[in-house]
Amino acid sequence: xxxxxxxxxxxxxxxxxxxxxxxxxxxxxxxxxxxxxxxxxxxxxxxxxxxxxxxxxxxxxxxxxxxxxxxxxxxxxxxxxxxxxxxxxxxxxxxxxxxxxxxxxxxxxxxxxxxxxxxxxxxxxxxxxxxxxxxxxxxxxxxxxxxxxxxxxxxxxxxxxxxxxxxxxxxxxxxxxxxxxxxxxxxxx
Length: 189
Fold this sequence. Notes:
This protein is α+β, with helices and mostly antiparallel strands. Helix content is 41%, strand content 18%. The chain has helices at 3-25, 67-75, 79-96, 129-135, 150-163, 177-183; strands at 31-40, 43-46, 50-54, 57-58, 101-105, 117-122, 140-141.
Protein backbone atom coordinates (compact mmCIF):
# COMPACT_ATOMS: atom_id res chain seq x y z
CA UNK A 1 0.00 0.00 0.00
CA UNK A 2 1.34 3.40 -0.92
CA UNK A 3 1.50 6.31 1.47
CA UNK A 4 -1.21 8.15 -0.47
CA UNK A 5 -3.52 5.10 -0.29
CA UNK A 6 -2.83 4.70 3.40
CA UNK A 7 -3.72 8.37 4.06
CA UNK A 8 -6.96 8.00 2.07
CA UNK A 9 -7.95 4.92 4.11
CA UNK A 10 -7.23 6.69 7.40
CA UNK A 11 -9.11 9.81 6.27
CA UNK A 12 -12.06 7.63 5.23
CA UNK A 13 -12.11 5.90 8.60
CA UNK A 14 -11.98 9.22 10.42
CA UNK A 15 -14.90 10.55 8.36
CA UNK A 16 -16.80 7.32 8.97
CA UNK A 17 -16.40 7.32 12.76
CA UNK A 18 -16.32 11.07 13.51
CA UNK A 19 -20.14 11.48 13.66
CA UNK A 20 -20.30 8.74 16.29
CA UNK A 21 -18.00 10.51 18.73
CA UNK A 22 -20.63 13.09 19.69
CA UNK A 23 -23.11 10.35 20.52
CA UNK A 24 -20.55 8.49 22.63
CA UNK A 25 -19.54 11.55 24.64
CA UNK A 26 -23.11 12.74 25.13
CA UNK A 27 -22.50 15.90 23.16
CA UNK A 28 -25.04 16.93 20.57
CA UNK A 29 -25.29 20.05 18.55
CA UNK A 30 -26.81 23.09 20.18
CA UNK A 31 -29.68 25.16 18.80
CA UNK A 32 -30.03 28.92 19.11
CA UNK A 33 -33.05 31.20 19.16
CA UNK A 34 -34.84 34.12 20.76
CA UNK A 35 -37.25 33.52 23.65
CA UNK A 36 -40.62 34.85 22.51
CA UNK A 37 -42.96 33.63 25.25
CA UNK A 38 -42.84 32.37 28.81
CA UNK A 39 -45.50 29.75 29.55
CA UNK A 40 -44.50 29.17 33.17
CA UNK A 41 -41.41 28.71 35.31
CA UNK A 42 -40.04 25.73 33.42
CA UNK A 43 -41.52 26.08 29.93
CA UNK A 44 -40.81 28.75 27.35
CA UNK A 45 -41.15 29.36 23.63
CA UNK A 46 -38.16 29.87 21.35
CA UNK A 47 -38.73 31.41 17.92
CA UNK A 48 -38.45 28.83 15.16
CA UNK A 49 -37.99 25.96 17.61
CA UNK A 50 -41.25 25.83 19.57
CA UNK A 51 -41.93 24.99 23.19
CA UNK A 52 -38.93 24.20 25.37
CA UNK A 53 -39.20 22.39 28.71
CA UNK A 54 -36.23 23.14 30.97
CA UNK A 55 -34.46 19.84 31.47
CA UNK A 56 -33.86 18.51 34.95
CA UNK A 57 -35.96 20.94 36.97
CA UNK A 58 -39.55 21.30 38.10
CA UNK A 59 -41.19 24.59 39.02
CA UNK A 60 -44.44 24.64 40.97
CA UNK A 61 -47.59 25.25 38.92
CA UNK A 62 -49.73 28.41 39.04
CA UNK A 63 -52.79 26.32 39.97
CA UNK A 64 -52.90 23.51 42.50
CA UNK A 65 -52.10 20.08 41.07
CA UNK A 66 -51.46 16.57 42.34
CA UNK A 67 -47.76 17.52 42.27
CA UNK A 68 -48.43 19.71 45.33
CA UNK A 69 -48.57 16.50 47.38
CA UNK A 70 -44.93 15.76 46.43
CA UNK A 71 -43.82 19.18 47.69
CA UNK A 72 -45.86 18.79 50.89
CA UNK A 73 -44.79 15.22 51.65
CA UNK A 74 -41.13 15.54 50.65
CA UNK A 75 -40.37 19.13 51.73
CA UNK A 76 -43.30 20.28 53.90
CA UNK A 77 -43.97 23.22 51.56
CA UNK A 78 -47.56 24.52 51.77
CA UNK A 79 -49.61 25.24 48.62
CA UNK A 80 -49.54 29.00 49.29
CA UNK A 81 -45.72 28.99 49.06
CA UNK A 82 -45.94 26.95 45.84
CA UNK A 83 -48.28 29.49 44.22
CA UNK A 84 -45.96 32.37 45.25
CA UNK A 85 -42.98 30.46 43.87
CA UNK A 86 -44.79 29.71 40.59
CA UNK A 87 -45.56 33.43 40.12
CA UNK A 88 -41.99 34.40 41.04
CA UNK A 89 -40.49 31.90 38.55
CA UNK A 90 -42.82 33.09 35.79
CA UNK A 91 -42.05 36.74 36.48
CA UNK A 92 -38.31 36.09 36.74
CA UNK A 93 -38.34 34.46 33.31
CA UNK A 94 -40.46 37.24 31.82
CA UNK A 95 -38.18 39.95 33.19
CA UNK A 96 -34.82 38.25 32.66
CA UNK A 97 -35.24 35.79 29.77
CA UNK A 98 -38.03 36.90 27.42
CA UNK A 99 -36.55 38.50 24.31
CA UNK A 100 -33.08 37.06 24.99
CA UNK A 101 -31.06 35.05 22.48
CA UNK A 102 -30.43 31.66 24.13
CA UNK A 103 -28.62 28.44 23.33
CA UNK A 104 -30.32 25.09 23.85
CA UNK A 105 -28.15 22.16 24.86
CA UNK A 106 -29.50 18.63 24.88
CA UNK A 107 -28.91 15.59 27.03
CA UNK A 108 -30.40 12.30 25.88
CA UNK A 109 -33.94 12.45 24.58
CA UNK A 110 -34.67 15.70 22.73
CA UNK A 111 -38.44 15.74 23.26
CA UNK A 112 -40.83 14.86 26.05
CA UNK A 113 -44.14 13.03 25.59
CA UNK A 114 -45.87 16.39 24.94
CA UNK A 115 -43.53 17.10 22.01
CA UNK A 116 -41.63 19.88 23.80
CA UNK A 117 -37.87 20.19 23.38
CA UNK A 118 -36.03 19.12 26.55
CA UNK A 119 -32.99 21.33 27.00
CA UNK A 120 -30.59 23.18 29.18
CA UNK A 121 -31.18 26.84 28.33
CA UNK A 122 -27.95 28.80 28.24
CA UNK A 123 -28.34 32.54 28.75
CA UNK A 124 -26.30 35.18 26.88
CA UNK A 125 -23.99 35.54 29.91
CA UNK A 126 -23.19 31.80 29.81
CA UNK A 127 -25.24 30.78 32.86
CA UNK A 128 -27.66 27.86 32.65
CA UNK A 129 -31.23 29.10 33.29
CA UNK A 130 -32.22 25.69 34.68
CA UNK A 131 -29.56 26.02 37.39
CA UNK A 132 -30.30 29.71 38.05
CA UNK A 133 -33.91 28.83 38.93
CA UNK A 134 -32.63 26.19 41.35
CA UNK A 135 -30.18 28.67 42.90
CA UNK A 136 -33.02 31.12 43.52
CA UNK A 137 -35.26 28.48 45.11
CA UNK A 138 -37.77 28.78 42.27
CA UNK A 139 -37.46 25.13 41.19
CA UNK A 140 -36.54 21.68 42.46
CA UNK A 141 -34.47 19.01 40.79
CA UNK A 142 -36.55 16.68 38.64
CA UNK A 143 -35.98 13.39 40.40
CA UNK A 144 -37.68 10.83 38.12
CA UNK A 145 -35.09 10.69 35.34
CA UNK A 146 -31.33 10.77 35.15
CA UNK A 147 -29.53 13.53 33.30
CA UNK A 148 -25.94 14.66 33.01
CA UNK A 149 -26.13 17.68 35.34
CA UNK A 150 -28.21 16.07 38.09
CA UNK A 151 -25.50 16.12 40.78
CA UNK A 152 -24.70 19.77 40.05
CA UNK A 153 -28.41 20.63 40.14
CA UNK A 154 -28.80 18.89 43.53
CA UNK A 155 -25.93 21.02 44.83
CA UNK A 156 -27.70 24.21 43.67
CA UNK A 157 -31.00 23.08 45.21
CA UNK A 158 -29.34 22.26 48.53
CA UNK A 159 -27.67 25.68 48.66
CA UNK A 160 -31.01 27.43 48.05
CA UNK A 161 -32.58 25.32 50.81
CA UNK A 162 -29.79 26.17 53.26
CA UNK A 163 -30.11 29.85 52.37
CA UNK A 164 -33.91 29.86 52.69
CA UNK A 165 -34.49 31.20 49.18
CA UNK A 166 -37.73 31.07 47.18
CA UNK A 167 -39.98 28.18 48.12
CA UNK A 168 -37.59 27.20 50.90
CA UNK A 169 -38.59 30.35 52.82
CA UNK A 170 -41.96 28.85 53.69
CA UNK A 171 -42.11 29.78 57.36
CA UNK A 172 -41.33 33.43 56.84
CA UNK A 173 -43.60 35.99 55.26
CA UNK A 174 -40.80 38.52 54.92
CA UNK A 175 -39.53 39.14 51.43
CA UNK A 176 -36.85 41.47 50.17
CA UNK A 177 -38.00 44.36 47.93
CA UNK A 178 -36.52 42.55 44.92
CA UNK A 179 -38.47 39.36 45.75
CA UNK A 180 -41.67 41.38 46.13
CA UNK A 181 -41.08 42.80 42.64
CA UNK A 182 -40.72 39.25 41.28
CA UNK A 183 -44.00 38.27 42.94
CA UNK A 184 -45.95 41.07 41.24
CA UNK A 185 -47.68 40.27 37.97
CA UNK A 186 -45.69 41.60 35.01
CA UNK A 187 -48.58 43.91 34.03
CA UNK A 188 -48.49 45.59 37.48
CA UNK A 189 -44.86 46.67 37.16
